[in-house]
Amino acid sequence: MSDPATAARQRELAANLAAVRDRIDEARRAAGRTDEIALVVVTKFFPAGDVDLLVDLGVTDIGENRDQEAVAKVASLRHRDRLRVHFIGQLQSNKAGSVAGYADVVQSVDRAKVVRALDRGGTASGRAMDVTVQVALCDSARRGGVPVDQAPALADVVTQAASLRLRGVMAVAPLGEDPRAAFARLREVRDGIRRSHPAATWMSAGMSGDLEAAVAEGATHLRVGSAILGSRLSHR
After folding, report:
1. What is the pTM of this model?
2. Residue 163 and residue 149: Cα distance in Å, rounded?
3. Rounded to whole angstroms, how far apart are CA atoms 233 and 236?
């Protein structure tokens, strides 16, 4: 790696990644957990070069939330074959076909219309996708998600799609609320869905500021961006 700027950026990413992994390990110990927790590094707004550096550092999962940005970025990655790409943003049905062309996981499914559009896209591209149902943990529509009481029915719809595999649930903690209490509600939703769909074990919850609360409540996947990549404004 001859470029000094690239080398410096890799050292920065390595230090940040190690710090986040230490936080996860400490949270696991505090919760008495011995299972593995998947780290999805949220790379939205950051270039493909950063993603390639992250893969060199052992990252296997990245998260993107804007189709127009993600489709070009994923296509340019040197290490695409070593990555699982998670689409984590609010998804419009008219973008589902494009997302189905590159995403391995879609975490933000919150409407039956989106399920049907993703299934059509997956069938057309010959790709199967893992899916989580995004659950709204508050009344605000800003962060997306299906209401708690409607999540089981939407999970049923996912299981009827030929190219989709129901894996579990996802949510974002509401602003101004104790994240652990919110994630406890998400765990209850996940556990209820598992009674009908035993393979739906995933609980994607927790970001840079609240990952400890998510681990304490049983999160299997964490979505961490700024704690690893820094402020997007400083890297434009």
Report:
1. 0.95
2. 25
3. 6
